[in-house]
Design brief:
The chain is 30% helix and 22% strand. With 135 residues, it is an alpha/beta fold. It folds into two domains: 89 residues, Arc Repressor Mutant, subunit A, CATH 1.10.10; 35 residues. Strands 2-4-3 form a three-stranded mixed sheet. The two termini are 32 Å apart.
């Protein structure tokens, strides 16, 4: 019996979900499904240029698993380009993370902050530096 799939962390949901050759109606094309975690692996490794170890940490998976996800994504994209198939981005065992939650240990205030904006240096309510990330 295979191990259950661990939830993979994805920072962004794609703006475009379907890609196809120009001039061919979608109903005539065979379809390939690229999962959201495969899409994220392409974004991290190929667009942002991260090493597999760092990208794996961002996705909350092992380096080996990240490599397997990325390899699967590359194969699907190559098949789409070479054989003229439609590619849809959907599904996968993911956890979408767009924000982080912080809490002040002095006044108890909680607030969220978007990924990629840096860690806050102080509480927004009482200006205390005694803060922690809770999610």
């Amino acid at each position: 019996m295979p191990r259950p799939t661990k939830c993979r962390r994805v920072q962004y949901s794609p703006d475009y979900l379907v890609f196809k050759p120009a001039g061919v109606p979608a109903r005539r094309l065979k379809q390939i499904d690229l999962t959201l975690d495969e899409f994220e692996s392409i974004r991290l490794a190929d667009l942002e240029g991260l090493y597999h170890e760092e990208a794996a940490r961002k996705m909350n998976v092992s380096r080996q698993t990240f490599g397997n996800i990325l390899s699967s994504a590359h194969n699907k994209i190559a098949e789409m380009l070479v054989h003229g198939k439609a590619l849809t981005v959907q599904g996968g065992t993911i956890s979408l993370k767009n924000e982080r939650l912080f809490k002040c240990n002095d006044c108890g205030a909680e607030w969220s902050k978007s990924f990629g904006t840096g860690r806050p240096g102080y509480c927004q309510s009482c200006n205390s530096e005694n803060i922690c990330r809770i999610k």
